[in-house]
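All the exercises in this workshop are built on plain-text protein records. The record below serves as our worked example for the rest of this section.
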Amino acid sequence: MQKLHSILFLSSVVLISAVILSSCSGSGSGATGWAYNDSENGGFQQLPYLGQETGPGLVFVEGGTFTMGQVEDDLTGSWDNIPRRVTVSSFYMDEVEVTNYYWLEYLFWLNRVYGEGYPEVVQRAKPDTLVWRDPRAYNEPYVNYYLRHPAFRDYPVVGVSWLQANDFCKWRTDRVNEQIMVREGFLVHNPTGQVDDSYFSTETYLDGQYEEAAKAADGIKDLRPNGVGYRNVSMSDGILLPDYRLPTEAEWEYAALSLIGNSGEELITSRRTYPWDGHYVRNDDSRGKFYGEINANFVRARGDYMGVAGALNDNADVTAPVYSYAPNDYGLYNMAGNVSEWVMDVYRPGTHQDAQEFRPFRGNVFSTKLLNSEGNVTDKLDYVEYDIDAVEEDLTTYEEETAGRLTSEGQNLIDNLKSKMESANEDMDVKRIEEAMTKMDEALDLIEESEAPSASDLRKFWTRNIINTPGQMRYRKVTVEENLGRRNYQQADNIDYLDGDLESSIFFDQQDDGDDLVYDYGETSLVNDNVRVYKGGSWNDRVYWIIPGTRRFLEENQSSSTIGFRCAMTRVGSPSGNAMGNN
């Protein structure tokens, strides 16, 4: 069906030329009566549209209502997944987890584009292969080979933080949309010209900042009376896809349960504990050839990771290839076991009690594109943007932990770095952002030129605190002032909304001093606004964690040998799929 839809989509694009070149419309506006696609009427265009194209690697997940949360005893006593009925909209989700080979493709592209001018951007994207190390186990072969050896190509990538996973999603969005634009003849593919900030991104193209690669003669004909012949594709043309992103916790859990397989006419015949029917971890279909075999990759019992020689039941010591085991009823593989998976949400123990009933999610930080004095979108970045506060915090902690053990050269280097950052902060205070980042780059140059033993450690503080890269658009958080009179929201950061903010604390009648009011991270809690949810069990977990309703959390900049991820995409339009099939 996916192939059929691709053919239909291609057909619709072919029709564009015929419709536009005719300069007349087969239909008119139901609001005004004026004909569409007619330059004599002003040139407002309506292109053929047969529905959303299914992006590479994705399958369609039809949404609906379900009971999210706990389906059996709360063994950990966390009480953080109390059952609640919610509705999830239809969406798309990766058929399999993101693999090592997908990640190597990503690193190759980054190195090709940024490797010469901004090697720190490439370094930021590298998975932490040291997550495999254990003081009581010999795991060095995985440290050395798991990411890059071809034997592990189709295994899920691990050692990737939540932040790195989000960067991958954005990169994937741009590469998929670029491929669509080249495929349809709207762009000239020019890999040799992709250096630093000169590469295709969906946002820069839509904002008119990628003109140098647009075909002058093969775009969409501009029917405006004062048009210039051809125009860029816009989102309203229906050719570009929505963003790849991480699934929300509700989406992931809904997709894992795949209740579409045991329901009919709004009646769910039996609830599920796992992503398959029944309450057993073994295949209980006595008529099938896999009868009695384990349905997922997890730890069956103490010390039993893969079964007995000659009959390796789950056939995996650590992770397994992503197409291992049977898919669930949505066609998704390994939604139980293999690796746990990052989702978008910020963790709160009370999320299920406070969640919206429709599309529940915690983690909204509303932003808008930065505008210049003329009200236009500012130019795309041509420099690396750092989180100066985070770099300073890392540097201070490092200095405290190495007190009395630094060489004089190392201490001098830190003092010089502090001086540069102090000057950068002065620029930030007066909104001279580019000047501030130039000084951060100068500080990085000091590190790279230094021969101090601590230089390699200090360089990591710059690498891991990059918040934006050349070629991307600039954003800022929305302000309360610009949202006065708005009733649905006012402030930008809503992570703490009703769970961690002043109103939800015992200090509700006092002045907010900006400190943690409920979740005192590092003192009374391991929860803060930078702690993210991950779902599902892994190759290193007992069976309890492969139940979709379970939930755990980890800091967004941390990674593990047991956590991977898969991407999702919003479904726009009909929740039941396209007219010619559900994908």
User: Anything to note?
Assistant: Residues 385-468 form one domain. Residues 1-26 have pLDDT under 50 and may be disordered. The first strand starts at residue 58 and ends at 61. The two ends are 7 Å apart (CA to CA).
